[in-house]
Amino acid sequence: MTDQVSFPLTLVMDIKSEEDAAKIAALLAGFAKQPPDKNPINVALTAVGTVHFARFVFLSPLQLAVITSYDGPFDTYIKAFADKIGEIFDELLQYMVDAPPLPVEQYLPEFLAYVEKNDRSIVAGVRQPLYSAYPELTVFTILNLAK
Question: Which CATH number characterizes residue 44's domain?
Fold first, then answer.
């Protein structure tokens, strides 16, 4: 058995108010209405190059989760995330309780700490395992197999 290459992120963010939640919902709906190749979330996550799956989910009226599966080390992923999708997080985080300073790309250590603090994939200080039917396949490998 080899080491697994993909890992989970379950970032749960608390929204300041119902009005802010409505603004977030409208923003995400606007992105979703765009064709996949024009949707800035899809474009950014494709550019990151290590994301298997990603979605935004309202867990309650005042909680938004970002649920992803990604390849490689956590810090590397969050840095790429900030670089490629940072502007979208700048828009979202302005509505969140205890958000890090913005822009996230400029305040990377604070953004990293915020994500780690709010990542529900970490229980008692341990990143929980992610079941994968293909634990050795990275996004890069899968894309090359498809060619």
Answer: 3.30.70.100
